[in-house]
Amino acid sequence: MRVRTAYSVVAVTSLALLSGCGAADMTKQASPFANAQGSKTVTLSVQSWVGAQANVAVAQYLLEHKLGYRVDTVQVDEVPAWDALSQGRVDAILEDWGHPDQEKRYVDDKKTITRAGGLGVTGHIGWYVPTYLVKQHPDITNWKNLNKYSSLFRTAESGSKGQLMDGSPSYVTNDKALVTNLKLNYQVVFAGSEAAQITQMKQFAKEKKPFLTYWYAPQWLFKKVPMTEVKLPAYKEGCDADAAKVACAYPHTPLEKYLNTDFAKKGGKAAAFLKKFTWTTEDQNEVSLMIADQKLSPADAAKKWVDSHPSTWKAWLS
Protein backbone atom coordinates (compact mmCIF):
# COMPACT_ATOMS: atom_id res chain seq x y z
CA MET A 1 0.00 0.00 0.00
CA ARG A 2 3.02 2.25 0.08
CA VAL A 3 4.76 2.62 -3.26
CA ARG A 4 3.01 3.91 -6.35
CA THR A 5 5.96 4.94 -8.51
CA ALA A 6 9.37 3.48 -9.22
CA TYR A 7 12.29 5.25 -7.59
CA SER A 8 15.11 2.83 -6.91
CA VAL A 9 16.35 -0.65 -7.61
CA VAL A 10 19.63 -1.59 -6.04
CA ALA A 11 21.09 -5.08 -5.79
CA VAL A 12 22.53 -5.92 -2.39
CA THR A 13 24.19 -9.01 -1.05
CA SER A 14 23.21 -8.39 2.56
CA LEU A 15 20.43 -6.47 4.24
CA ALA A 16 21.08 -2.96 5.51
CA LEU A 17 18.89 -0.22 6.92
CA LEU A 18 18.44 2.02 3.93
CA SER A 19 17.96 5.75 4.05
CA GLY A 20 17.64 6.96 0.49
CA CYS A 21 16.90 6.09 -3.07
CA GLY A 22 18.15 6.82 -6.57
CA ALA A 23 17.52 5.73 -10.11
CA ALA A 24 19.08 2.49 -11.30
CA ASP A 25 18.80 0.02 -14.16
CA MET A 26 17.16 -3.19 -12.96
CA THR A 27 18.34 -5.10 -16.03
CA LYS A 28 21.95 -4.55 -14.99
CA GLN A 29 21.56 -4.91 -11.24
CA ALA A 30 19.18 -7.85 -10.81
CA SER A 31 20.66 -10.80 -9.03
CA PRO A 32 22.33 -13.35 -11.33
CA PHE A 33 21.04 -16.08 -8.99
CA ALA A 34 17.34 -15.37 -9.42
CA ASN A 35 15.47 -18.28 -10.98
CA ALA A 36 18.72 -20.17 -11.55
CA GLN A 37 17.79 -23.62 -12.78
CA GLY A 38 19.07 -26.56 -10.75
CA SER A 39 20.87 -24.51 -8.13
CA LYS A 40 19.99 -24.02 -4.47
CA THR A 41 19.65 -20.27 -4.68
CA VAL A 42 16.84 -17.90 -3.77
CA THR A 43 16.52 -14.19 -4.51
CA LEU A 44 14.27 -12.14 -2.25
CA SER A 45 12.92 -8.67 -2.94
CA VAL A 46 13.49 -6.33 0.00
CA GLN A 47 11.78 -2.96 0.44
CA SER A 48 13.40 0.03 2.14
CA TRP A 49 11.37 0.08 5.37
CA VAL A 50 12.69 -1.89 8.30
CA GLY A 51 9.65 -4.16 8.78
CA ALA A 52 10.16 -5.60 5.30
CA GLN A 53 13.87 -5.97 6.03
CA ALA A 54 13.04 -7.90 9.21
CA ASN A 55 10.99 -10.41 7.19
CA VAL A 56 13.80 -10.96 4.72
CA ALA A 57 16.50 -11.14 7.41
CA VAL A 58 14.78 -14.02 9.20
CA ALA A 59 13.81 -15.81 5.99
CA GLN A 60 17.37 -15.46 4.67
CA TYR A 61 18.90 -16.74 7.91
CA LEU A 62 16.72 -19.85 7.98
CA LEU A 63 17.10 -20.58 4.26
CA GLU A 64 20.87 -20.40 4.59
CA HIS A 65 21.42 -22.04 7.99
CA LYS A 66 18.63 -24.61 8.09
CA LEU A 67 17.94 -25.43 4.43
CA GLY A 68 21.38 -24.90 2.85
CA TYR A 69 20.42 -22.29 0.24
CA ARG A 70 22.39 -19.34 -1.01
CA VAL A 71 20.21 -16.24 -0.64
CA ASP A 72 20.60 -13.02 -2.60
CA THR A 73 18.54 -9.90 -1.92
CA VAL A 74 17.55 -7.10 -4.27
CA GLN A 75 16.09 -3.76 -3.22
CA VAL A 76 13.15 -2.96 -5.48
CA ASP A 77 10.34 -0.49 -4.87
CA GLU A 78 6.95 -2.12 -4.65
CA VAL A 79 5.52 -1.63 -8.16
CA PRO A 80 8.70 -2.49 -10.13
CA ALA A 81 9.15 -5.45 -7.78
CA TRP A 82 6.07 -6.99 -9.37
CA ASP A 83 7.68 -6.67 -12.81
CA ALA A 84 10.91 -8.23 -11.52
CA LEU A 85 8.99 -11.06 -9.85
CA SER A 86 6.96 -11.76 -12.98
CA GLN A 87 10.14 -11.98 -15.06
CA GLY A 88 11.95 -14.23 -12.57
CA ARG A 89 14.54 -11.64 -11.63
CA VAL A 90 13.47 -12.12 -8.04
CA ASP A 91 11.78 -15.21 -6.61
CA ALA A 92 9.65 -13.78 -3.81
CA ILE A 93 8.06 -10.69 -2.29
CA LEU A 94 7.41 -11.23 1.42
CA GLU A 95 5.45 -8.07 2.24
CA ASP A 96 3.02 -6.49 -0.18
CA TRP A 97 0.68 -3.75 1.02
CA GLY A 98 -1.94 -4.27 -1.67
CA HIS A 99 -1.58 -3.56 -5.38
CA PRO A 100 -4.82 -4.72 -7.04
CA ASP A 101 -3.79 -3.58 -10.55
CA GLN A 102 -0.56 -5.58 -10.40
CA GLU A 103 -2.32 -8.54 -8.85
CA LYS A 104 -4.90 -8.64 -11.66
CA ARG A 105 -2.24 -8.27 -14.35
CA TYR A 106 0.28 -10.81 -13.12
CA VAL A 107 -1.64 -13.22 -10.89
CA ASP A 108 -5.05 -13.41 -12.52
CA ASP A 109 -4.30 -12.66 -16.18
CA LYS A 110 -0.68 -13.57 -16.98
CA LYS A 111 -0.36 -16.12 -14.13
CA THR A 112 3.37 -15.40 -13.88
CA ILE A 113 3.03 -14.64 -10.16
CA THR A 114 1.45 -16.93 -7.56
CA ARG A 115 -0.12 -15.99 -4.24
CA ALA A 116 1.87 -17.41 -1.32
CA GLY A 117 -0.51 -16.61 1.51
CA GLY A 118 -0.61 -14.01 4.24
CA LEU A 119 2.40 -12.80 6.19
CA GLY A 120 0.33 -12.81 9.38
CA VAL A 121 0.65 -9.05 9.81
CA THR A 122 -1.99 -6.39 9.08
CA GLY A 123 -0.72 -3.04 7.85
CA HIS A 124 -2.34 0.34 8.34
CA ILE A 125 -1.37 3.84 7.21
CA GLY A 126 -2.68 6.86 9.06
CA TRP A 127 -2.00 10.32 10.45
CA TYR A 128 -0.48 10.43 13.92
CA VAL A 129 0.37 12.97 16.57
CA PRO A 130 2.55 12.34 19.64
CA THR A 131 0.56 11.17 22.63
CA TYR A 132 2.06 13.90 24.83
CA LEU A 133 0.34 16.44 22.54
CA VAL A 134 -3.01 14.64 22.88
CA LYS A 135 -2.79 15.03 26.65
CA GLN A 136 -2.61 18.81 26.12
CA HIS A 137 -5.26 18.97 23.38
CA PRO A 138 -7.55 15.90 23.54
CA ASP A 139 -9.71 17.00 20.59
CA ILE A 140 -6.73 17.14 18.22
CA THR A 141 -7.33 13.50 17.30
CA ASN A 142 -10.38 14.46 15.21
CA TRP A 143 -9.52 15.71 11.74
CA LYS A 144 -12.27 18.33 11.97
CA ASN A 145 -10.22 20.13 14.63
CA LEU A 146 -6.89 20.11 12.81
CA ASN A 147 -7.28 23.59 11.30
CA LYS A 148 -7.71 25.00 14.80
CA TYR A 149 -4.24 23.70 15.64
CA SER A 150 -2.44 24.25 12.34
CA SER A 151 -0.24 27.00 13.78
CA LEU A 152 1.27 24.46 16.21
CA PHE A 153 2.70 22.49 13.29
CA ARG A 154 4.26 25.31 11.26
CA THR A 155 7.85 24.77 10.11
CA ALA A 156 10.24 26.56 7.78
CA GLU A 157 9.24 24.10 5.07
CA SER A 158 5.46 24.54 5.50
CA GLY A 159 5.42 28.33 5.75
CA SER A 160 2.15 29.77 7.05
CA LYS A 161 0.50 26.33 6.99
CA GLY A 162 0.85 23.43 9.35
CA GLN A 163 3.30 20.70 8.35
CA LEU A 164 2.04 17.20 7.57
CA MET A 165 5.23 15.15 7.47
CA ASP A 166 5.46 12.29 4.98
CA GLY A 167 8.39 9.93 4.42
CA SER A 168 9.64 8.88 1.01
CA PRO A 169 7.94 10.38 -2.08
CA SER A 170 7.85 6.81 -3.43
CA TYR A 171 5.40 5.57 -0.78
CA VAL A 172 1.72 5.41 -1.60
CA THR A 173 0.18 8.45 0.00
CA ASN A 174 -3.18 10.11 -0.45
CA ASP A 175 -2.13 13.00 1.77
CA LYS A 176 -2.05 15.85 -0.76
CA ALA A 177 -5.55 14.90 -1.94
CA LEU A 178 -6.77 14.55 1.65
CA VAL A 179 -5.45 18.00 2.59
CA THR A 180 -7.16 19.52 -0.44
CA ASN A 181 -10.45 17.64 -0.24
CA LEU A 182 -10.84 18.06 3.51
CA LYS A 183 -9.92 21.76 3.18
CA LEU A 184 -7.11 21.58 5.70
CA ASN A 185 -4.60 24.39 6.22
CA TYR A 186 -1.60 22.06 5.92
CA GLN A 187 1.35 21.47 3.62
CA VAL A 188 2.66 17.97 2.91
CA VAL A 189 6.43 17.95 3.45
CA PHE A 190 8.50 14.87 2.56
CA ALA A 191 11.34 13.86 4.87
CA GLY A 192 12.84 11.81 2.02
CA SER A 193 12.96 8.33 3.54
CA GLU A 194 11.74 6.27 6.47
CA ALA A 195 15.05 6.76 8.26
CA ALA A 196 14.97 10.55 7.81
CA GLN A 197 11.38 10.68 8.99
CA ILE A 198 12.22 8.64 12.10
CA THR A 199 15.13 10.98 12.88
CA GLN A 200 12.84 14.00 12.70
CA MET A 201 10.14 12.41 14.84
CA LYS A 202 12.61 11.34 17.51
CA GLN A 203 14.05 14.86 17.62
CA PHE A 204 10.57 16.41 17.93
CA ALA A 205 9.74 13.95 20.70
CA LYS A 206 12.98 14.65 22.55
CA GLU A 207 12.07 18.34 22.62
CA LYS A 208 8.36 17.63 23.26
CA LYS A 209 7.41 19.60 20.15
CA PRO A 210 4.12 19.13 18.24
CA PHE A 211 4.19 17.14 15.01
CA LEU A 212 1.63 15.63 12.64
CA THR A 213 2.89 12.77 10.53
CA TYR A 214 1.92 10.15 7.99
CA TRP A 215 2.94 6.88 9.61
CA TYR A 216 2.10 3.20 9.56
CA ALA A 217 1.77 0.10 11.66
CA PRO A 218 3.38 -2.25 12.35
CA GLN A 219 6.38 -0.10 13.22
CA TRP A 220 8.89 -0.39 16.04
CA LEU A 221 9.02 3.38 16.64
CA PHE A 222 5.69 3.30 18.51
CA LYS A 223 7.58 1.64 21.37
CA LYS A 224 9.97 4.59 21.57
CA VAL A 225 7.67 7.46 20.62
CA PRO A 226 4.04 6.80 21.67
CA MET A 227 1.67 8.22 19.06
CA THR A 228 -2.09 8.49 18.69
CA GLU A 229 -3.92 8.23 15.38
CA VAL A 230 -5.96 11.15 14.09
CA LYS A 231 -9.42 9.96 13.05
CA LEU A 232 -10.02 10.74 9.37
CA PRO A 233 -13.40 10.17 7.67
CA ALA A 234 -14.14 6.44 7.85
CA TYR A 235 -12.77 4.20 5.13
CA LYS A 236 -15.37 2.57 2.88
CA GLU A 237 -14.68 0.18 0.03
CA GLY A 238 -13.90 2.20 -3.09
CA CYS A 239 -13.55 5.58 -1.37
CA ASP A 240 -9.93 5.73 -2.53
CA ALA A 241 -10.58 4.55 -6.10
CA ASP A 242 -10.03 8.02 -7.57
CA ALA A 243 -6.70 9.29 -6.25
CA ALA A 244 -7.64 12.94 -6.84
CA LYS A 245 -10.93 12.69 -4.93
CA VAL A 246 -9.83 10.74 -1.85
CA ALA A 247 -11.41 12.11 1.32
CA CYS A 248 -11.31 9.05 3.59
CA ALA A 249 -8.96 7.18 5.90
CA TYR A 250 -6.51 4.55 4.71
CA PRO A 251 -7.68 0.92 4.94
CA HIS A 252 -6.35 -1.87 7.14
CA THR A 253 -4.49 -4.22 4.79
CA PRO A 254 -3.56 -7.85 5.52
CA LEU A 255 -0.01 -8.06 4.15
CA GLU A 256 0.54 -10.76 1.52
CA LYS A 257 3.41 -12.80 0.06
CA TYR A 258 3.91 -13.57 -3.63
CA LEU A 259 6.19 -15.96 -5.53
CA ASN A 260 7.30 -16.16 -9.13
CA THR A 261 5.08 -18.92 -10.56
CA ASP A 262 7.97 -21.05 -11.88
CA PHE A 263 9.70 -20.76 -8.52
CA ALA A 264 6.48 -21.66 -6.72
CA LYS A 265 6.30 -24.87 -8.78
CA LYS A 266 9.99 -25.80 -8.91
CA GLY A 267 11.50 -24.05 -5.89
CA GLY A 268 11.41 -27.16 -3.72
CA LYS A 269 11.94 -26.74 0.01
CA ALA A 270 12.62 -23.01 -0.35
CA ALA A 271 9.27 -22.32 -1.98
CA ALA A 272 7.47 -24.51 0.55
CA PHE A 273 9.22 -22.70 3.40
CA LEU A 274 8.30 -19.23 2.11
CA LYS A 275 4.65 -20.25 1.73
CA LYS A 276 4.62 -21.31 5.39
CA PHE A 277 6.50 -18.24 6.64
CA THR A 278 3.95 -16.52 8.88
CA TRP A 279 4.57 -14.48 12.00
CA THR A 280 2.98 -11.85 14.18
CA THR A 281 3.25 -8.08 14.35
CA GLU A 282 5.08 -8.56 17.65
CA ASP A 283 7.62 -10.88 16.00
CA GLN A 284 8.29 -8.41 13.20
CA ASN A 285 8.58 -5.47 15.57
CA GLU A 286 11.01 -7.40 17.77
CA VAL A 287 13.42 -7.92 14.87
CA SER A 288 12.84 -4.40 13.50
CA LEU A 289 13.69 -2.87 16.86
CA MET A 290 16.95 -4.80 17.00
CA ILE A 291 17.93 -3.62 13.52
CA ALA A 292 16.83 0.00 13.60
CA ASP A 293 17.15 0.99 17.25
CA GLN A 294 19.68 -1.40 18.78
CA LYS A 295 21.79 -1.24 15.61
CA LEU A 296 22.30 -5.00 15.24
CA SER A 297 23.06 -6.20 11.75
CA PRO A 298 20.03 -7.85 10.11
CA ALA A 299 21.82 -11.21 10.25
CA ASP A 300 22.57 -10.84 13.96
CA ALA A 301 19.01 -9.70 14.68
CA ALA A 302 17.65 -12.68 12.76
CA LYS A 303 19.90 -15.11 14.62
CA LYS A 304 18.86 -13.67 17.97
CA TRP A 305 15.17 -14.00 17.07
CA VAL A 306 15.63 -17.52 15.65
CA ASP A 307 17.48 -18.67 18.78
CA SER A 308 14.63 -17.50 21.02
CA HIS A 309 11.61 -18.58 18.93
CA PRO A 310 12.23 -22.18 17.78
CA SER A 311 8.60 -23.22 18.19
CA THR A 312 7.56 -20.57 15.66
CA TRP A 313 10.02 -21.17 12.85
CA LYS A 314 10.28 -24.96 13.08
CA ALA A 315 6.72 -25.16 11.79
CA TRP A 316 7.85 -23.37 8.64
CA LEU A 317 10.36 -26.12 7.89
CA SER A 318 8.06 -29.09 8.37
Low-pLDDT segments, ≥5 res: 1-30
Structural class: alpha/beta
User: What's the SSE pattern?
Assistant: EHEHEHEHEHEHEHEEEHHHHH
Count of DSSP helices?
12
Quote the distance from N terminus to C terminus: 31 Å
Shape: globular
Radius of gyration: 20 Å
Count all strands and give the number.
10
The proportion of residues in beta strands is 15-25%
Instruction: Give the biggest beta sheet.
Output: 10 strands, mixed
Overall pLDDT: 88
Helix content: 25-40%
Short synopsis of the structure:
The chain has helices at about 25-30, 50-65, 80-85, 100-110, 130-135, 175-180, 195-205, 260-265, 270-275, 280-290, 300-310, 310-315; strands at about 10, 40-45, 70-75, 90-95, 115-130, 160-165, 185-190, 210-215, 225-230, 250-260. About 35% of the residues lie in helices and about 20% in strands. It is an alpha/beta fold and about 325 residues long.
